[in-house]
Amino acid sequence: MSDVLRFVEDNLGRFREELYDFLRIPSVSAKSEHDADTREAAEWFGQRLQEAGLTAVVHDTPGHPIVVGEWRGAGPDAPTVLIYGHYDVQPPEPLDLWDSPPFEPTERDGRIYARGSADDKGQLYMHVKALEAFHATGAELPINVVVLAEGEEEVGSPNLVPFVEARADELACDVVLISDTGMFAEGLPSLLFSLRGLAYFELHVHGANSDLHSGEYGGAVGNPGNAMSRIIASLHDDKGRIAIDGFYDDVVEWDAETRSQIAGLPHSDKSFAQDVGAPGLIGEDGYSALERLWIRPTCDVCGILCGYTGEGAKTVLPNHAMAKVSFRLVPDQHPDRIKELFEAHVAKVAPRGVTVEVRELHGGRPWKASPSGPAFEAAGEALAEAFGTEPVLMGGGGSIPIVVEFEEKLDATALLVGFSLPNCNLHAPNEWFPIENYEKGIGALARLYGKLGSLRG
Ligand code: BES
Ligand code: MN
Ligand code: MN
Questions:
Q1: Using a 6 Å CB cutoff, which residues line ligand 1?
Q2: Are 344 and 247 in contact (CB under 8 A)?
Q3: Do 379 and 448 form a contact (C-beta atoms < 8 A)?
Q4: Helix H or strand E encompassing 367
Q5: pTM, full prediction
Q6: Which of 15, 275, 313, 402 has the maximum number of C-beta atoms within 10 A of its C-beta?
Q7: Closest C-alpha among 352, 389, 324, 93 to residue 230
Q8: Class of domain 2-195+366-452
Q9: What is the mean pLDDT of residues 294-320?
Q10: Cα separations in angstroms, 52 against 19, 48, 128, 284, 415
């Protein structure tokens, strides 16, 4: 192991330069104008896998490619670890809010600023470098490895489930290892016990067949803006709960042990609010802020479109309103059931004079780990050795819908070991990743691979 870690230590500068090449490719999966860039990122990544001693295939899909790398030198009796991540990134807009260009990685204050540095190219590439260290030093890697990198995570992974189903044999593994989440705080390595699911909709409200003069028609003809506001206002009660009939039916109450672990984390509501510049915190009565983020479901309007929003006053009665409404889900909620409940609720509360329509955007199920067992312990030890402090357990407020699918379709345990920090600006302007975590994390992953060898037998 010491050779491997020394190799990592000696090559950190190059590892960073290579990551910058990866980050320069604008692999924005949501925008077709970037289709060629997204493919380029897939091919670039496949080549780096090959240099690290794996075989790599870039598979075409109806959308963006899926890259699969393999190394099976540990033999059929050794455990197999599937490393999953994504090489696509969120759109960088609004560009004028970036202090340096999103696709020109820039180091400032020990941070790598670039779109995708934290989510997820930086974290995905750490695995490639940890694998390279074994290959380059000839050290024994005690696990077989499959690396699966997709280019559609940020658009709901539409082609990944069919891919995993069709290739379940090739992807068979004992553990799915994912670095696409964060640490609780700087210097505090973390293991995840959960991820929230997602049910995301577009809600359309239609009125007359054209916009109308608001004086000639207002008051007698239904206004989709007014109606939308009433519908949105009906989604929560005054205790911060979601006021949709049946919404909590499948919500599992978390065990007392996890809740007391959450309560023991070094957290202050006041500085949390200050960090994001919010005047105060909100949420469901009876739960702490961290519980509201990790183990309770939410409903959020992510966007609204309606009527005249340009300069000055225009007296107009709009004929259409649209809102993007997302629900973060917790075990055992299911996005299909939430869709039925949401549709029924909207139909029930929609005022007269308008018609309403719910369109599904994407969804995914929540994930809950049993945070124990040999793989979990190996990860805890590897993180403690690399960061010099014991990891904490935390929940994930975000969603990686494929995690449950991996566990079920491949009959494997998922292990989520992430290295971004809470204020890394994922999906926002000025996304960054800490250089310290990039470097210590590569060492942690190399140690973890070494320890996972004893999973079997
Ligand atoms: N890496 C994130 C998910 C994440 C971030 C989980 C931080 C936990 C903590 C992932 O790339 C992501 O952004 N997922 C989307 C869902 C997807 C279906 C578009 C999300 O959570 O909004
Ligand atoms: Mn991600
Ligand atoms: Mn993301």
A1: 119-120, 153-154, 156, 180-182, 195, 198, 362, 364, 396, 398-401, 426
A2: no
A3: yes
A4: strand 367-368
A5: 0.96
A6: 402
A7: 352
A8: alpha beta
A9: 98
A10: 14, 6, 7, 48, 22
Residue 371, pLDDT score: 87
SS3 113: strand
End-to-end CA distance of the chain: 21
Strands annotated E in 275-335: 298-306, 316-317, 320-329
Whole-number pLDDT of residue 353: 98
Gap between the Cα atoms of 377 and 372, Å rounded: 7
| Tens-digit pLDDT profile for residues 244-273 | 999 999 999 999 999 999 999 999 999 999
- 58: which 2 tokens? 């870039």
Task: Please give the distance, rounded to the nearest whole angstrom, from the Cα atom of residue 351 to the centre of ligand 3.
Answer: 36
Write the CA distances from 353 to 123, 131, 207, 208, 347, integer angstroms.
51, 62, 7, 9, 13
Q: How many CA atoms lie within 13 A of 65 on its CB side?
A: 21
Q: Which helix (H) or strand (E) holds 357?
A: strand 355-364
Structure tokens at 256: 């007392």
Q: How many CB atoms lie within 10 A of CB 290?
A: 20
| Residue 283, Ramachandran bin (φ over 0: left; ψ between -120 and 50: alpha; else beta) | left
- Rounded CA-CA distance 385/111 in Å is 23
Question: Are 144 and 74 in contact, with CB atoms under 8 Å apart?
Answer: yes
Tens digits of residue pLDDT in 9-50? 999 999 999 999 999 999 999 999 999 999 999 999 999 999
CA of 304 to the centre of ligand 1 (A): 21
Mind giving me the DSSP string for 193-222? EEE-EEEEEEEEEE-SSS-EEHHHHBTTB-
| Closest ligand by atom to 397 CA | 1
Spacing, Cα 122 to ligand 2 middle (Å): 10
**Residue 207 in tokens:** 């009125």
CATH domain 197-272+288-363 topology: Alpha-Beta Plaits (3.30.70)
The label of the residue with tokens 């014991």 reads 390
- Number of Cβ within 10 Å of residue 191's Cβ equals 21
Among protein residues, the one whose CA lies closest to atom 8 of ligand 1: 398
CA of 420, closest atom in ligand 1: 7
